[in-house]
Amino acid sequence: MLNFHQHVEGEQSMDGLTEFPYELRESITLYEVINASFNHLTYIPEEIPLRIPHLTKLVLSYNKIDSLPDTFLLFFHLRELDLDHNQLTTIPKPLTQLLTLEKLDLSHNAINEVPSDIENMQSLTRLNLSHNKLNSVAVQSLAMCPLKVLLLHNNQLSKPPQHVCNEGQSISFYNCHLGKASLVCLGSLKTVHSVQMFTG
Predict the structure, then answer these.
(1) Residues 54-90: pLDDT tens digits?
(2) Where along the chain do its domains lie?
(3) Residue ranges of E strands in 26-156
(4) Do residues 173 and 160 lie in contact, with contact meaning Cβ atoms separated by under 8 Å?
(5) Second label for 47, Cα 20 to 30 Å away, from 11, 21, 77, 136?
(6) Where are the beta strands (DSSP E) in the chain?
């Protein structure tokens, strides 16, 4: 594991990194886990996925990242990604092409839409999109993922998800309080058959 996270009393350190270390950009490494949280990173160099081919977990929480390079999809073994507390306004397309990704945390960004191609994420079981700017949810696309936990609270949802039917089992949306634009979605089965709304 490589750890260059900076954390000082709950805040980003003034001495945090502004770019990935030279050794990660210029040579191939065998790291499987990297923690680069609580820094000042604004971008991911396009060569990074080629330099860390065995990466399974990447923690980029509490940075200033607003986009991802197209080469990000080359993280062929990535299973867990934390991008919470950044500056993303969309779910970057390369993320939806990570076929091995199981856990994705995009909370505390400024994301306003869930793209339909999220349905391509056939290994995704945990997705956190809470504390964003979503006003609707692509339920039918999410239903194609094997989600077990989906968190969507503290958004700006004005159009709650309606009933969808596909082959499989069920997933339920709990705590739908539209006045507070709050929605928490939890499920436990591999395939979604229907979405049920519970208020209260």
Answers:
(1) 999 999 999 999 999 999 999 999 999 999 999 999 9
(2) 1-87, 118-200
(3) 33-35, 57-59, 80-82, 103-105, 126-128, 149-151
(4) yes
(5) 11
(6) 2-3, 33-35, 57-59, 80-82, 103-105, 126-128, 149-151, 169-177, 182-187, 192-197
Give the number of other Cβ atoms within 10 Å of residue 177's Cβ: 13
The predicted model gives 105-134 an average pLDDT of 94
Query: How far is residue 182's CA from residue 157's CA, in Å, rounded to a whole number?
Result: 7
What are the pLDDT digits (tens) for 1-20? Answer: 888 766 544 555 567 899 99
State both tokens at 104. Answer: 């994705």
In terms of Cβ atoms closer than 10 Å to its own Cβ (0-12, 13-18, 19+), residue 3 is exposed
Tell me the C-alpha to C-alpha distance, in Å, between residue 123 and each of 1, 69, 80, 97, 172: 23, 21, 11, 11, 20
User: Alpha carbon of 31 to those of 35, 38, 67: distances in Å?
Assistant: 11, 20, 23
Strand 33-35 with 2-3, pairing? parallel
Q: Does residue 178 register a pLDDT over 50? A: no
CA 87 – CA 83 distance, rounded (Å): 9
Domain 1-87 bears CATH identifier 3.90.226.10: no
Give the CA angle between residues 71, 74, 77 to the nearest 5°.
Answer: 150
Phi, psi angle pair for 25, to nearest 5°: -90, -20
State residue 174's pLDDT score.
Answer: 39
* Rounded Cα gap, residues 24 and 67, in angstroms: 19
Residue 123 tokens read as 């290994």
